[in-house]
Amino acid sequence: MNSRTKPPAGMGAGEWQARVDLAACYRLVDMHGWSDLLGTHISARVPGEPDHFLLNPYGNLWDEMCASDLIKVDMDGNVKSETNGYVNPAGFTIHSAILMARPEVNCAMHTHTPAGVGVATQKGGLLPITQHALHVLAHLGYAEYGGFETDPAERDRIAAAIEDHNVLVLKNHGLITAGRSVGEAFVWMYRAERACKMQLAIQQAGAEIEPIDTALVEKSLALNKELNSDKGHRPIGKNEWPALLRKLDRVNPGYDQ
Questions:
Q1: Please, what is the average pLDDT of the chain?
Q2: Considering the domain 13-251 in this protein, what is its CATH number?
């Protein structure tokens, strides 16, 4: 996507585009019902500034987020943009941990949805009982519950858990996704959320679950790593993100202000 609006004086085009995409992501998350009032957060690394990233100002509802609202911070938590707001300390801890540990990651998302928390609280986590789960399981890891992540010392624990995963289940807490672009992180969250929602629906039905053969599960997980990569036919977010922005332009424009 190329932003239709110009960056403010003194701001590079790369940072402005990152702001536009991130603001759009906040609004899309709210549109899909994944926001949590003022809680949770999404980050985007500033292009050309690997040690700086953007976060939401605490106090803005997600359906009203604009590119100019977002706050730029460095990996020590210092604010590097003009703002009257402040960032959520837990958001800084989680996102700085991921972006420091994964130089190729440019966006991370964190949610507290009923489906995501519902699965994160189950001892078995996400189960290989649906095709949607198999899409996600090949890229999924887990982090033990560590309490409220307001202490920067928690970064080491989160960084160790994320490894090379695109989806991370924070046990008893929620979901995290990571991507090379905002669109990639969003679509990973969409897939993870759908898989969790389907699992809960199956469990709530109370019917006996039809298992998938273990050998077929392993084959599917290996295949998904190929199909979801740049070598496959469905690199995550590449085709979905422009389509999502077109929809957002129809139902909630103005994010690029």
A1: 94
A2: 3.40.225.10
